[in-house]
Amino acid sequence: MFRSVAWIALLAGGFAAAAQAAPKKPNVLIILADDLGYADLSVQGCKQFKTPNIDRIFNEGVRFTQGYVANSVCAPSRAGLLTGRMGSSFGFESNLNHDLSSKPGSTVGLPLDQKTIADVLKAVGYENYCIGKWHLGDNQKLFHPLKRGFDAFCGLISGSRSYWALEKHDPIKTLMVDYGYMDEGQVEDFYVTDVLTDKAIHYLETRQKDQPFFMYLSYTAPHGPLEAKDDVLERLDYDFKNPKRKIYAGMVVNMDDNVGRVLNCLDDLGISENTLIVFLSDNGGPTDKNSSSNWPLRGMKGQLFEGGVRVPFGVCWKGTIPPGQVNNEPVISLDLLPTFAAISGADKKTTIETDGLNLMPLLMQRTGSLPGRTFYWRRGEKTQVAIREGKFKYHQNRRKGEEFLWNIEDDIGEKNNLVKEHPELASRMRAQYEKWETTLPPLGVGIGAPAPDEGKKSQKRK
């Protein structure tokens, strides 16, 4: 399953070291931000506001400077993260078409034959909690988190909602607790990010103490609508010229406050040293909508420039992963499932289907690099494609007839198009991408391919 004998040896050494530091199966916590800009943490260089709690995760472990996600929009990125597989491999390349996914009996969502991290860890005794944004299918009979390996759920089925209590019930936006709905109007000082954290802490404090847990804490912040708490806005001392940017900053700072509450809870419970924590965003910031910043990257959410698919990416495991690391090796959200399978022993119990790699040898500094591999991305009814191999990235916008080639290591901002300078390389990478495409299944209707009538409209637009 791993790619070389040398890599297997490194893995074995990494497991042995981890086992000495943490004899019990480690807990796993993913904290996922929504539409966070690449530059919008102080550990990532932000000077306008501070995020000391999120910074802790990066500083107490590894900050990856080239951390990627599976797609540049919410749903397919989450599908990739939770399955460890590129969504293209099972036809999931776009956000859900809610006109289709919300219909009774809809089959639009994360395909049922795809195992999630929760499925993998449940098989080796983990209690699994899903908190926050789901966005992987509206039909609760098929796609509810409790049907996909999780044991408890508090969150919203859809992709976004107001941060304040909803005045009118909405079946995919009102917060659920398992299969029931929260009476949001009865919650004092209701603010979604705070409420989700309250529930996360409740689960941590009331869990079975002798059972390892996996918690997927999927905040909606700082995805729109732009709504921040007044008391947080009053704490911001930067002179924001853009009022939208100030509200966005307030949402990020509030999320940081809540991350701090979770980290402090782990400390108070005495389980920090047996908990691996990952923080990342689902995609790059939509700079035109929420005033996020992806500097120095080009592009934004929805695009396959670096600003769409490169995100803040930090991993820590106190007492096991050496702290203070800054690692420039390209990694991707798909690597999380095989990493968790390795540290939990799940990979010894079953074959793990994944497009990712176990990161433990890298995290433990037993190797300085991962085996060579290629990243592929595709979205937007196959109109945007990209491939990253080594230091080079090839990108094609088929709708506009544009193609690009960059040396990403020297040109992080994707400013110098090398297609004319290196036509042979561009041609080879294009051919390599097209060969990969021949291995993919058809796009799923509503998660990649349009409904038949939408296809006709799309053709007319062209």
From TrEMBL:
InterPro entries: Alkaline_phosphatase_core_sf, Sulfatase, Sulfatase_CS, Sulfatase_N. GO terms for molecular function: arylsulfatase activity; metal ion binding. Residues 453-462 have a biased composition (Basic and acidic residues). Keywords: Calcium, Hydrolase, Metal-binding, Signal. Residues 1-21 form the signal peptide. Gene3D superfamilies: 3.30.1120.10, Alkaline Phosphatase, subunit A. Residues 26-345 form the Sulfatase N-terminal domain. Residues 441-462 are annotated as: Disordered. This is Arylsulfatase. It comes from Pontiella desulfatans.
